[in-house]
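Per your request, structure below.
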């Protein structure tokens, strides 16, 4: 085991020879280097053999994803090292400078309770896919977490060894792991500090293994599940609302009765399948239906205002549901189905 106080971790899937020069630079900085071969295949045997001169190389035969590769390195570190050190994560394609990585590792060693993020500033020279993806993810992350981070997709991240247990608890095996990391830290109130770094895109980022549709779905999976649950509940709600409106004739009464029934459906789905909540059902039900009552009151008032303003009652219902969707998601995630992590449990015990 080496004596350095900084460890660089690089997950590698079908890397180019650029990784050799990156490894050499890292070792010149007196940092320990761990490279995880995420199932690149036997045709990369020679490259990884050469990399062993500069790094501890971990290999496994099948591709399991970036998140799995990172956690493999974290598990190795947890079992192999003692004492304090800082960890910096880099991509294998040369789009992070070693100088920036070294600087972030130093900062993580100085502020041991924070996650440091290498923040790239997008410009007209950046690939359109990267600019668009970062902009969308930035907006979604801010809306769902309440924390503003400019570059949510950066792979250059640094933290102290004290945060390794937290890193190992975070779910996700592929690209969604990096977003889950940010979401977990936002929930826990762990500081996330952005540091400006060089913006490097090699060959228009063509070497990236990020699959826009598939991996974006993984990143936004929790939000997609919540949206699906909300859509199903809305269909139940809207169907009952329409039936009751035609039979009772009053929009307010129809809205209240339909919402009571659809809320039971929504609570059951969200608790079990969306947020995987383990708190006793009675306790979470009390919080959920208190929120549902508040949402219902706002929903009904807004609905009546729209109807009195001359908006069609059926259209008014759709408008109110869309407006209150984000509020409902944030409150359910942060209050009703908020996860109690192991750290908080230890604090309470």
């Amino acid at each position: 085991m080496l004596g350095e106080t900084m460890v660089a971790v690089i997950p590698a899937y079908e890397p180019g020879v650029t990784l050799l020069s990156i490894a050499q630079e890292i070792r010149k900085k007196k940092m320990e280097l761990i490279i995880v071969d995420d199932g690149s295949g036997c045709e990369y045997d020679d490259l990884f053999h050469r990399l062993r001169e500069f790094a501890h190389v971990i290999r496994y035969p099948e591709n399991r994803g970036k998140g799995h590769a990172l956690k493999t390195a974290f598990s190795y570190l947890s079992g192999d090292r003692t004492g304090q050190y800082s960890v910096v994560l880099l991509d294998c394609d040369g789009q992070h400078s070693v100088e920036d990585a070294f600087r972030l590792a130093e900062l993580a060693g100085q502020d041991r309770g924070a996650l440091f993020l290498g923040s790239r500033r997008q410009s007209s020279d950046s690939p359109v896919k990267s600019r668009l993806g970062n902009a969308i993810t930035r907006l979604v992350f801010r809306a769902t977490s309440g924390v503003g981070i400019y570059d949510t997709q950066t792979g250059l991240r640094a933290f102290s060894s004290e945060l390794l247990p937290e890193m190992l608890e975070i779910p996700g095996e592929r690209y969604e792991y990096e977003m889950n990391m940010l979401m977990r830290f936002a929930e826990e109130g762990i500081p996330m500090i952005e540091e400006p770094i060089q913006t490097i895109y090699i060959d228009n980022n063509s070497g990236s293994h990020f699959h826009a549709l598939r991996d974006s779905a993984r990143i936004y999976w929790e939000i997609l599940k919540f949206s699906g649950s909300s859509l199903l509940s809305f269909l139940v709600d809207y169907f009952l609302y329409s039936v009751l409106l035609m039979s009772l004739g009053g929009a307010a009464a129809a809205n209240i009765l339909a919402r009571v029934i659809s809320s039971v459906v929504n609570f059951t789905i969200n608790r079990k399948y969306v947020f995987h909540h383990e708190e006793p059902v009675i306790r979470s039900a009390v919080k959920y239906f208190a929120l549902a009552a508040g949402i219902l009151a706002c929903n009904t008032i807004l609905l009546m205002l729209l109807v009195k303003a001359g908006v069609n009652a059926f259209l008014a219902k759709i408008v109110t549901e869309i407006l209150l969707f984000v509020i409902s998601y944030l409150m359910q995630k942060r209050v009703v189905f908020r996860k109690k992590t192991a750290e908080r449990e230890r604090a309470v015990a």
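Residues 223-343 form one domain.

Regards,
D.
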